[in-house]
Amino acid sequence: MREERRSLIGWVAGLLGFCVIMLSMYPTIRGNSGFAKLLDAYPEPLKKLFNLADYTTGAGYLRTEVFSFMAPLLIAIFAIIWGSDLIAGEEERRTIDLLLANPVTRRRMVIEKWLALLTGTVLLSASLELTLGLLGPAFKLHVGWGPLTAVVLGSGLFALAFGTLALAVGAATGSRAVARGVATMLAVATYLLSTLAQIVTWLRPVQPASLWYHALGTDPLSSGFHAGHLSILVLTTIVIVALAALGFERRDLAT
Predict the structure, then answer these.
(1) Which of 129, 194, 185 is nearest to 155 (CA)?
(2) For 92-121, how does the pLDDT look when each residue is reduced to its tens digit (9 = 90+)?
(3) pTM summary value
(4) CA distances, 200 to each of 40, 77, 188 (Å)
(5) Inter-CA distances, 239 with 35, 45, 185, Å
(6) Any idea where the domains of the chain sit in the sequence?
Protein backbone atom coordinates (compact mmCIF):
# COMPACT_ATOMS: atom_id res chain seq x y z
CA MET A 1 0.00 0.00 0.00
CA ARG A 2 2.83 2.37 0.80
CA GLU A 3 4.55 1.70 -2.53
CA GLU A 4 1.35 2.32 -4.48
CA ARG A 5 0.01 5.28 -2.48
CA ARG A 6 0.73 7.86 -5.20
CA SER A 7 -0.88 5.68 -7.83
CA LEU A 8 -3.96 5.20 -5.66
CA ILE A 9 -4.26 8.95 -5.02
CA GLY A 10 -4.02 9.57 -8.76
CA TRP A 11 -6.76 7.03 -9.50
CA VAL A 12 -9.03 8.53 -6.85
CA ALA A 13 -8.46 12.02 -8.25
CA GLY A 14 -9.15 10.84 -11.80
CA LEU A 15 -12.34 9.06 -10.77
CA LEU A 16 -13.43 12.19 -8.86
CA GLY A 17 -12.92 14.29 -11.99
CA PHE A 18 -14.90 11.83 -14.11
CA CYS A 19 -17.81 11.92 -11.64
CA VAL A 20 -17.86 15.72 -11.51
CA ILE A 21 -17.96 15.94 -15.31
CA MET A 22 -20.82 13.42 -15.51
CA LEU A 23 -22.78 15.13 -12.73
CA SER A 24 -22.33 18.58 -14.26
CA MET A 25 -24.04 17.41 -17.47
CA TYR A 26 -27.14 16.11 -15.71
CA PRO A 27 -29.01 19.43 -15.14
CA THR A 28 -29.32 19.91 -18.92
CA ILE A 29 -30.91 16.47 -19.26
CA ARG A 30 -33.05 16.31 -16.11
CA GLY A 31 -36.73 16.45 -16.96
CA ASN A 32 -36.02 17.32 -20.60
CA SER A 33 -39.21 16.10 -22.30
CA GLY A 34 -37.83 16.62 -25.80
CA PHE A 35 -34.82 14.48 -25.04
CA ALA A 36 -37.05 11.82 -23.46
CA LYS A 37 -39.21 11.68 -26.61
CA LEU A 38 -36.11 11.34 -28.76
CA LEU A 39 -34.93 8.36 -26.72
CA ASP A 40 -38.38 6.78 -26.85
CA ALA A 41 -38.12 6.76 -30.63
CA TYR A 42 -34.95 4.63 -30.51
CA PRO A 43 -35.34 0.93 -31.38
CA GLU A 44 -35.88 -1.26 -28.32
CA PRO A 45 -32.73 -3.39 -28.90
CA LEU A 46 -30.63 -0.21 -29.01
CA LYS A 47 -32.13 1.01 -25.74
CA LYS A 48 -31.37 -2.32 -24.10
CA LEU A 49 -27.84 -2.39 -25.46
CA PHE A 50 -26.95 1.04 -24.04
CA ASN A 51 -29.20 0.98 -20.94
CA LEU A 52 -31.22 3.99 -22.06
CA ALA A 53 -34.30 3.33 -19.90
CA ASP A 54 -35.44 6.37 -17.85
CA TYR A 55 -32.38 8.30 -19.03
CA THR A 56 -33.68 11.69 -17.83
CA THR A 57 -34.07 10.46 -14.23
CA GLY A 58 -31.21 10.38 -11.75
CA ALA A 59 -31.01 6.59 -11.56
CA GLY A 60 -31.41 6.21 -15.33
CA TYR A 61 -28.71 8.77 -16.04
CA LEU A 62 -26.22 7.13 -13.66
CA ARG A 63 -27.06 3.71 -15.08
CA THR A 64 -26.31 4.85 -18.62
CA GLU A 65 -23.46 7.32 -18.24
CA VAL A 66 -21.58 5.98 -15.22
CA PHE A 67 -22.35 2.34 -14.49
CA SER A 68 -23.21 0.94 -17.90
CA PHE A 69 -19.50 0.74 -18.71
CA MET A 70 -17.16 3.56 -17.65
CA ALA A 71 -16.99 3.40 -13.83
CA PRO A 72 -16.79 -0.42 -13.62
CA LEU A 73 -14.22 -0.34 -16.42
CA LEU A 74 -12.03 2.21 -14.66
CA ILE A 75 -12.06 0.31 -11.36
CA ALA A 76 -11.38 -2.95 -13.21
CA ILE A 77 -8.42 -1.43 -15.06
CA PHE A 78 -7.01 -0.23 -11.75
CA ALA A 79 -7.44 -3.68 -10.17
CA ILE A 80 -5.98 -5.54 -13.16
CA ILE A 81 -2.93 -3.27 -13.40
CA TRP A 82 -2.30 -3.46 -9.68
CA GLY A 83 -3.02 -7.21 -9.43
CA SER A 84 -0.72 -8.06 -12.33
CA ASP A 85 2.14 -6.17 -10.70
CA LEU A 86 1.89 -7.66 -7.23
CA ILE A 87 3.88 -10.83 -7.96
CA ALA A 88 4.79 -10.76 -11.66
CA GLY A 89 6.13 -7.22 -11.19
CA GLU A 90 8.35 -8.38 -8.36
CA GLU A 91 9.71 -11.14 -10.60
CA GLU A 92 10.36 -8.85 -13.53
CA ARG A 93 12.12 -6.33 -11.28
CA ARG A 94 14.09 -9.26 -9.76
CA THR A 95 13.20 -8.28 -6.21
CA ILE A 96 11.10 -11.31 -5.35
CA ASP A 97 14.09 -13.40 -4.27
CA LEU A 98 15.01 -10.79 -1.64
CA LEU A 99 11.43 -10.80 -0.39
CA LEU A 100 11.23 -14.59 -0.18
CA ALA A 101 14.60 -14.76 1.57
CA ASN A 102 12.74 -13.48 4.64
CA PRO A 103 10.81 -15.88 6.89
CA VAL A 104 7.62 -15.41 4.85
CA THR A 105 5.87 -18.30 3.13
CA ARG A 106 4.80 -17.97 -0.48
CA ARG A 107 1.18 -18.57 0.49
CA ARG A 108 1.28 -15.75 3.03
CA MET A 109 2.89 -13.45 0.49
CA VAL A 110 0.12 -14.08 -2.06
CA ILE A 111 -2.64 -13.58 0.50
CA GLU A 112 -1.17 -10.38 1.94
CA LYS A 113 -0.57 -8.92 -1.51
CA TRP A 114 -4.16 -9.78 -2.39
CA LEU A 115 -5.32 -8.01 0.78
CA ALA A 116 -3.52 -4.90 -0.49
CA LEU A 117 -5.40 -5.26 -3.79
CA LEU A 118 -8.66 -5.64 -1.86
CA THR A 119 -7.91 -2.51 0.19
CA GLY A 120 -7.10 -0.43 -2.88
CA THR A 121 -10.23 -1.58 -4.70
CA VAL A 122 -12.39 -0.82 -1.66
CA LEU A 123 -10.91 2.67 -1.30
CA LEU A 124 -11.44 3.46 -4.98
CA SER A 125 -15.00 2.13 -4.93
CA ALA A 126 -15.79 4.04 -1.73
CA SER A 127 -14.48 7.26 -3.27
CA LEU A 128 -16.80 6.70 -6.25
CA GLU A 129 -19.84 6.21 -4.03
CA LEU A 130 -19.07 9.15 -1.75
CA THR A 131 -18.49 11.48 -4.70
CA LEU A 132 -21.77 10.58 -6.37
CA GLY A 133 -23.73 10.47 -3.14
CA LEU A 134 -22.46 13.74 -1.69
CA LEU A 135 -22.13 15.83 -4.85
CA GLY A 136 -25.16 14.47 -6.70
CA PRO A 137 -27.74 16.62 -4.85
CA ALA A 138 -25.77 19.75 -5.78
CA PHE A 139 -26.55 18.91 -9.43
CA LYS A 140 -30.21 17.96 -8.70
CA LEU A 141 -29.36 14.27 -9.00
CA HIS A 142 -30.91 12.29 -6.16
CA VAL A 143 -30.30 8.57 -5.77
CA GLY A 144 -30.70 6.77 -2.46
CA TRP A 145 -27.64 5.49 -0.67
CA GLY A 146 -29.01 1.95 -0.78
CA PRO A 147 -29.22 1.62 -4.58
CA LEU A 148 -25.96 3.55 -4.96
CA THR A 149 -24.18 1.19 -2.56
CA ALA A 150 -25.60 -1.82 -4.40
CA VAL A 151 -24.33 -0.73 -7.81
CA VAL A 152 -20.92 0.38 -6.49
CA LEU A 153 -20.54 -2.91 -4.60
CA GLY A 154 -21.28 -4.84 -7.78
CA SER A 155 -18.74 -2.76 -9.71
CA GLY A 156 -16.10 -3.22 -7.02
CA LEU A 157 -16.59 -6.98 -6.77
CA PHE A 158 -16.41 -7.31 -10.55
CA ALA A 159 -13.14 -5.36 -10.61
CA LEU A 160 -11.73 -7.32 -7.67
CA ALA A 161 -12.49 -10.65 -9.35
CA PHE A 162 -10.49 -9.75 -12.45
CA GLY A 163 -7.75 -8.02 -10.47
CA THR A 164 -7.42 -11.27 -8.54
CA LEU A 165 -7.31 -13.18 -11.81
CA ALA A 166 -4.47 -10.93 -12.98
CA LEU A 167 -2.62 -11.67 -9.74
CA ALA A 168 -3.12 -15.42 -10.23
CA VAL A 169 -1.98 -15.42 -13.86
CA GLY A 170 1.01 -13.28 -12.92
CA ALA A 171 1.89 -15.69 -10.12
CA ALA A 172 1.65 -18.62 -12.55
CA THR A 173 3.60 -17.06 -15.44
CA GLY A 174 5.78 -14.32 -13.96
CA SER A 175 4.66 -11.99 -16.74
CA ARG A 176 2.69 -8.79 -16.19
CA ALA A 177 1.82 -8.54 -19.87
CA VAL A 178 0.28 -12.02 -19.94
CA ALA A 179 -1.58 -11.38 -16.69
CA ARG A 180 -3.04 -8.10 -17.93
CA GLY A 181 -3.91 -9.52 -21.33
CA VAL A 182 -5.73 -12.58 -19.99
CA ALA A 183 -7.63 -10.68 -17.29
CA THR A 184 -8.63 -7.84 -19.63
CA MET A 185 -9.72 -10.20 -22.39
CA LEU A 186 -11.95 -12.20 -20.05
CA ALA A 187 -13.38 -9.08 -18.41
CA VAL A 188 -14.37 -7.67 -21.81
CA ALA A 189 -15.74 -11.06 -22.87
CA THR A 190 -18.01 -11.26 -19.81
CA TYR A 191 -19.24 -7.71 -20.46
CA LEU A 192 -20.05 -8.49 -24.09
CA LEU A 193 -21.76 -11.76 -23.16
CA SER A 194 -24.01 -10.09 -20.60
CA THR A 195 -24.81 -7.10 -22.82
CA LEU A 196 -25.40 -8.95 -26.09
CA ALA A 197 -27.55 -11.56 -24.34
CA GLN A 198 -30.18 -8.84 -23.89
CA ILE A 199 -30.71 -8.63 -27.65
CA VAL A 200 -29.41 -11.99 -28.94
CA THR A 201 -31.83 -14.73 -27.92
CA TRP A 202 -29.50 -17.71 -28.24
CA LEU A 203 -27.00 -16.13 -25.81
CA ARG A 204 -29.49 -15.83 -22.94
CA PRO A 205 -29.06 -19.40 -21.62
CA VAL A 206 -25.32 -18.78 -21.07
CA GLN A 207 -25.68 -15.27 -19.66
CA PRO A 208 -25.30 -16.51 -16.04
CA ALA A 209 -21.74 -17.53 -16.93
CA SER A 210 -20.87 -13.82 -17.12
CA LEU A 211 -19.53 -12.17 -13.97
CA TRP A 212 -20.72 -8.82 -15.36
CA TYR A 213 -24.26 -10.19 -15.31
CA HIS A 214 -23.96 -11.10 -11.63
CA ALA A 215 -22.38 -7.74 -10.79
CA LEU A 216 -24.51 -5.30 -12.79
CA GLY A 217 -26.77 -7.21 -15.17
CA THR A 218 -29.61 -7.31 -12.62
CA ASP A 219 -29.79 -3.48 -12.53
CA PRO A 220 -28.92 -2.93 -8.85
CA LEU A 221 -29.71 0.80 -9.14
CA SER A 222 -33.36 -0.14 -9.51
CA SER A 223 -33.62 -3.53 -7.83
CA GLY A 224 -31.06 -3.12 -5.04
CA PHE A 225 -28.91 -5.91 -3.57
CA HIS A 226 -29.01 -9.48 -4.88
CA ALA A 227 -27.23 -11.66 -2.37
CA GLY A 228 -27.15 -14.68 -4.66
CA HIS A 229 -25.45 -12.85 -7.52
CA LEU A 230 -22.99 -11.06 -5.24
CA SER A 231 -22.09 -14.31 -3.47
CA ILE A 232 -21.08 -15.80 -6.83
CA LEU A 233 -18.61 -12.95 -7.33
CA VAL A 234 -17.25 -13.37 -3.80
CA LEU A 235 -16.88 -17.16 -4.10
CA THR A 236 -15.24 -16.86 -7.52
CA THR A 237 -12.69 -14.42 -6.13
CA ILE A 238 -11.94 -16.64 -3.13
CA VAL A 239 -11.40 -19.65 -5.38
CA ILE A 240 -9.01 -17.68 -7.60
CA VAL A 241 -7.03 -16.48 -4.55
CA ALA A 242 -6.74 -20.05 -3.28
CA LEU A 243 -5.58 -21.31 -6.68
CA ALA A 244 -3.06 -18.47 -6.94
CA ALA A 245 -1.59 -19.28 -3.52
CA LEU A 246 -1.37 -23.01 -4.20
CA GLY A 247 0.04 -22.56 -7.68
CA PHE A 248 2.66 -20.03 -6.65
CA GLU A 249 3.71 -22.22 -3.71
CA ARG A 250 4.58 -25.08 -6.06
CA ARG A 251 6.17 -23.05 -8.85
CA ASP A 252 9.88 -23.10 -9.58
CA LEU A 253 10.95 -19.43 -9.73
CA ALA A 254 13.74 -18.36 -12.04
CA THR A 255 15.13 -15.15 -10.53
Answers:
(1) 129
(2) 888 888 888 888 899 999 999 999 999 999
(3) 0.91
(4) 21, 27, 17
(5) 46, 36, 20
(6) 5-250
